[in-house]
Model the fold of this input.
Amino acid sequence: MRRRIIAGNWKMNMTKAEAKQFMADFLPLCKDAKCDTVLCVPFTDIHRVYKLAIGSNVKVGAQNVAWADKGAFTGEISAEMLKEVGAEYVIIGHSERRAYFGETDETVNMRTKQALKNGLKPIVCVGETLDQREGGKTEEVLANQVKKGLEGITEEVIIAYEPVWAIGTGKTATPEMANETIGFIRSVAQPLVGDVSILYGGSMNAANAQSLLNMEHIDGGLIGGASLKPNDFSVIVNCD
Ligand code: PGA
Done:
């Protein structure tokens, strides 16, 4: 059940031409990768990346999904629409969505249920801020995010632990710190959803990926900046 999953999070990057170029460069470099390789791309790139990835080991994901089937939800996108263009995975509750777009544990829970109901694989993000870590609140914050985010859910999900202070800052959690925290998350998640894959995210790159992935509890990575660079991302997907 605990597969190695390496998921790129392109965030709001990659035009049509850039996505095409990325795939041309990346596909030959990842053909021997043994992990589940996923690219979570902007909505407008999903179908293109999906088509370019046919016949390769790369799967495609989105970065958000609505909790409703359809209707008056301006600016949202439905699970059916995502599946129709080739998405198989979806990131839910990324800290940027929580910080800038009002995402809460409750909406994370609703979106996750909707993804599962429609056969999309949710990558549910949790993580503490620097203030919370320094204030000794890390475990309380993470336990809450996991319990509320996964309330009423028993199906398999993927969890991504992304300390907010490590995202896009170049500050990575040490492998030991990430491992210990993910071990804690596992102890909270396991009674709910079983032995699921838990990824680390936050300034993971070609240089530090192997030492993170060597750790017992770290089943993979959710990678932002380094997933925009074919060479760097291929080093990560080819880690032992
Ligand atoms: P980063 O982003 O790798 O650029 O730190 C990770 C993420 O936000 O998923």
In short: The chain has a mean pLDDT of 97. Residues 175-193 form the longest helix (19 residues).
